Amino acid sequence: MRAVLQDAILCYLGRAKRRRVDSRILSREAEHWIRVRDWESPFSFNNVCEALGLCHESTRRTILAWKDDPERAARACSIADPA
After folding, report:
1. Residue 67's pLDDT is what?
2. CA–CA separation, 53 vs 25, rounded Å?
3. Which of 67, 61, 62 is nearest to 14 (CA)?
4. What is the rounded distance in angstroms from the CA atom of residue 72 to the CA atom of residue 74?
5. How far apart are CA 70 and CA 75, in angstroms?
6. How far is it, in rounded angstroms, from Cα 72 to Cα 17?
7. Which of 31, 39, 41 is nearest to 65 (CA)?
8. Which of 24, 55, 56, 70 has the most C-beta neighbours closer than 10 Å?
9. Do residues 67 and 13 make contact, with C-beta atoms less than 8 angstroms apart?
10. Distance between CA atoms of 56 and 19, rounded to whole angstroms?
11. Contacts of residue 11, Cβ cutoff 8 Å, sequence gap at least 6
12. CB count in 10 Å sphere of residue 80
């Protein structure tokens, strides 16, 4: 579950490493996944957060705010992708 959330964050912020997929498409798809309030899918944002012991609403707000704050986004990416 942690890897799913990490990948979504990197995709949303345009930092995912995918050679054959446009980073803008990945970002839009990740944003959609983060914004959808789904409890049905086992790998929905809400369920991933719950499995990790995170509040889905505050986690959602925090991640979405990172796009407007490049410094915080860079720190988040360095934590999400330490390699």
Report:
1. 85
2. 29
3. 67
4. 5
5. 9
6. 20
7. 31
8. 56
9. yes
10. 30
11. 23, 26, 27, 29, 30
12. 17
- Residue type at 8? A
CA distances from 63 to 2, 10, 53 (A): 14, 10, 16
Q: Helix 23-35 crosses helix 56-66 at what angle (to 10 degrees)?
A: 150
Can you tell me the distance from the alpha carbon of 42 to that of 19, in angstroms, rounded to the nearest whole number? Answer: 28
Contacts of residue 2, Cβ cutoff 8 Å, sequence gap at least 6: 52
Tokens of 26: 């990945």
37-53, pLDDT tens digit by residue? 999 999 999 999 999 99
